[in-house]
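Quick check before the chapter quiz. The format below is the same one you will see on the exam, so make sure you can read both the input and the output lines.
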Amino acid sequence: MGFADDHLIPLVDEGLGNSAYLLDLGDGRALAVDASRDLRALRTAAERRGLSVAYAADTHLHADFLTGALQLAADDGATVLASAAGHRAFPHTALADGDETDLGGLTLRALATPGHTDEHLSFLLLDGARELGVFTGGSLIVGSAARTDLLGADRAEELARAQYQSLRRLAQLPDQTAVWPTHGAGSFCSAPPGAERITTIGAQKQANSLLTAPDEDTFVRQLLAGLGSYPAYFDRLGEINRLGPAVLSTAPTLAALSAAETRQLLGQGAQIIDVRPVTDFAHGHIPGAISIPLRDQFATWLGWLLPDDTPLVFVTAPGQDLAELTWQALKIGYERLAGHLEWPVWQAAGGAQQTIDLLTADRIADRPVLDIRQRAEHVAGHIPGAVGIELGELTSHTDEAPAGAVVACGHGERAMTAASLLARAGHDDLAVLDGGPGDWVKATGRTLEEGA
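Here is the expected output.
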């Protein structure tokens, strides 16, 4: 077994596409790297090994989740390690390029690797002079490098050039050095698809097209060409992470609401989010509710589509995981959680209901199709004639949706979210495709259309 097998525990957030890491230092203490505010998995892993977190390192000011470093400092007495250039407004050990932290037998060396953010650090783990691995955050990732436009489109090229230099620096490490990135497949920080989440310097020098780019200009063109859209909440969290998210003194809970309390909250401007499965929402939901099914990607779409300063009421099905719902909201900075209403409570009170048709691919006939997947998904293959509007952009383009459209995505969850937004904007006679383009191909025997 190698070092990683013995001591390093990757903690993957499938919904956000990120990995945090828990490093067992061998003496009952641990190092946490890029831990999220949702510390449940990390706590479980630490308790299993009898570890207390002594150090919490952040590679950068995260845009896609709130840091858990402050919570670890409060709960475990962890020392927070972060870039001095980040100007964080809470107690931490401010590190510059080359600074080293003695972990007790192992050493953590800070490497300035700007690009994804200005103040980005990678952390090289050393056993004496031997390079064991490097926590690369959003610099070198499996098959790519993280996006450089999070500080504004006007700085994207400048930071891409910084990213070029950072990756060249990392590539000078020995080929056998392990690479432990934060961003991975599923992340909107521009990670490509794929099952691998860790790699080595040597493997990336062979397989990562950015590392094989012949010159800086080619690297920059290639990196910028791969940038798609990203969730709206990314623009808020960097500054919250600089100031420091609130430390939680107790485990969060979600209050149960009556139908009357829900009506009162709606009258006061609360937003209602229905987290039940797509089929449940289709068969009946509160008028004006937005469908965001509770699944791994819940936080992404909550943060993309809803403001963070409005009270949120969640409609749930009996038995749904309220802790999961709460933590997904809290880890991206949604604090105003008014409570949850179980759907049978609303039904028993005689509350108003709406429905949306859920159609299999063989039943959509010649109805117009609205494809709300990401642009890259649409271009790769869509139902012929489908209008493409990304879900994240739909609220400002509802007037462009075809009348009587069948809304489609990859499986149906995003499509139902889109249909609920359109219904709230006044569209009627909508339907949602139960499935995706592949189901349409099987049902019709026709081929998908490629291109914009």
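If your answer matched, good. The chain has a mean pLDDT of 95.
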